[in-house]
Amino acid sequence: MLPRQVFLVSLLLAASNSFVPENKLTPTVYESINRGVSGRLIGSDETTIANYPYVVSLQYNSTFFGYEVAHFCTGTIVNQNWVVTAAECALLLEPENLIVRAGSSYYNESGIVYTVENVTTHEDFDAVDLNYDIGLIKIRGSFQFSDVIQPVKLPTYNLTIENGTMLDIASWGVTEFLDANLSPVIRKISVPTITIEECSRVYEQVGKTQIDVFCAHAANIGPCVGDAGAGAVRDGVLLGLVAWSYGCGGTTYPTVYSNVPRLLPWIIEVAGITSEAPEESGASEASGAFCSLLLIFLSLAISMR
Ligand SMILES: *[C@@H]1O[C@H](CO)[C@@H](O)[C@H](O)[C@H]1NC(C)=O
Ligand SMILES: *[C@@H]1O[C@H](CO)[C@@H](O)[C@H](O)[C@H]1NC(C)=O
Ligand SMILES: *[C@@H]1O[C@H](CO)[C@@H](O)[C@H](O)[C@H]1NC(C)=O
Ligand SMILES: *[C@@H]1O[C@H](CO)[C@@H](O)[C@H](O)[C@H]1NC(C)=O
Ligand SMILES: *[C@@H]1O[C@H](CO)[C@@H](O)[C@H](O)[C@H]1NC(C)=O
Predict the structure, then answer these.
(1) In order of start, what are the domains of the chain with their CATH numbers?
(2) CA geometry: angle at 63 spanning 60 and 64, to 5°?
(3) Residues with CB under 6 A from ligand 1
(4) Which of 67, 117, 289, 292 is most buried per CB count within 10 Å?
(5) What gap in Å lies between CA 189 and CA 44, rounded to an integer?
(6) What are the φ/ψ torsions at residue 270 (nearest 5 degrees)?
(7) Atom of ligand 5 nearest to the CA of 29
(8) For residues 205 and 223, what is the distance between their CA atoms, to the nearest angstrom?
(9) Of the candidates 78, 44, 23, which has an alpha carbon nearest to the alpha carbon of residue 204?
(10) What is the pLDDT of residues 247-280, one digit of tens each?
(11) Phi-psi region of 36 (alpha: psi -120 to 50; beta: other; left: phi over 0)
(12) pLDDT over threshold 50, residue 138
């Protein structure tokens, strides 16, 4: 009997002010930022792990309210031992209950499954403001690098992420908002970044309490349940981590990403990256401040027996 996939969409309410963004993007704004973007709603195109060999599925090897939980978040390999993801993905787990599947296009089979030695979240991560939303997971042993298991390239420090930068996100999340099924095969979307000003029109905390993030948005394309923690990559370089949004799939609201160029010193320090340390960037400071929100979509894929 095949397990039936259901989801628990857990809404982490990170307290404070209002839970609803002040303003939606105006149609003009998102029509314009959507121009030139191909693809469909949410999950977009099927791909293979060989195109995104740094992507891993984070899975719970335990039961959750009696259900066996499979993929719940996505991570990115940064070196032989460490995977980077969002803090809220790392926080959920005791290392002994977490497994990492690498090198497979399917979250539920093939590839290599690694157990976990250590889970660390940024010491300044703040569940209210959602600042420093980043975590690192250390596997037991080392990744066996191959055509389908490779570390991502890291950006330069404080690299400026220009408005309209196209980001690729590969993951196993749902292909329709409120759909109960993860995609068994890895899928990929491309979304453009938007300016802080545009993002702040939607999420009022922009520029106030949440820093070291940026936003991206395209109508009807975006990360959703099962995609939290996934890397947002341009030309093989990791720029962002899927952090949170109000609603998801890019229907109306932008998605907020942890800004990897700004959080790089923490990654380097914790993951002990010594060789090929990125050059300091001469670029101007990253585009400032962003939103803090209050509603995180987290997801757990549950295999119901
Ligand atoms: C999952 O947990 C079970 C029971 O604790 C254990 O026997 C098994 O080896 C674990 N699987 C992995 C891949 O760690
Ligand atoms: C993985 O998922 C696919 C699609 O749902 C299914 O056909 C396959 O049997 C599953 N594999 C395992 C090992 O459960
Ligand atoms: C996990 O890693 C962090 C950062 O390297 C370290 O401070 C901590 O002691 C480690 N915990 C365990 C249980 O190894
Ligand atoms: C990055 O920017 C922060 C804040 O502006 C600054 O404190 C830090 O020194 C910068 N780091 C590098 C390597 O330029
Ligand atoms: C941001 O980029 C989009 C295209 O992706 C463009 O339509 C928009 O006008 C730009 N906004 C600013 C403030 O430059």
Answers:
(1) 6-303 (2.40.10.10)
(2) 90
(3) 61, 99, 113, 115
(4) 292
(5) 5
(6) -70, -45
(7) 7
(8) 21
(9) 23
(10) 777 667 899 999 999 999 999 999 998 755 444 4
(11) left
(12) yes
12-63 pLDDT per residue, tens: 222 222 233 443 333 323 332 332 222 233 546 889 999 999 999 999 887 6
- 33: Cβ below 6 Å to ligand 5? yes
Ligand (nearest to CA of 201):
5
Both structure tokens of 89: 């993905």
CA distance 149 to 142: 11
Q: Which two tokens stand for residue 80?
A: 């032989």
Distance from CA of residue 71 to its chain's centroid?
13
Task: Give the number of residues written for the chain.
Answer: 305
Specify the residue for token string 């389908």.
148
What is the C-alpha to C-alpha distance for residues 167 and 240, in angstroms, rounded to an integer?
9
Beta-bridge mates of residue 189: 169
Mean pLDDT of 118-127: 91
Residues 211-230: b if buried by 16+ CB within 10 A, e if exposed? bbbbbbbbbbbbbbbbbbbb
Distance CA 35, CA 202 (A): 20
**Longest CA span, the chain:** 57
**Dihedral sign for Cα atoms in the order 270, 14, 225, 10:** positive
CB of 85 closer than 8 Å to CB of 98: no
End-to-end CA distance of the chain: 8
Instruction: Find the ligand nearest to 99 CA.
Output: 1
Give the nearest ligand 3 atom to 118 CA: 1
Q: Tokens for 97? A: 């209950």
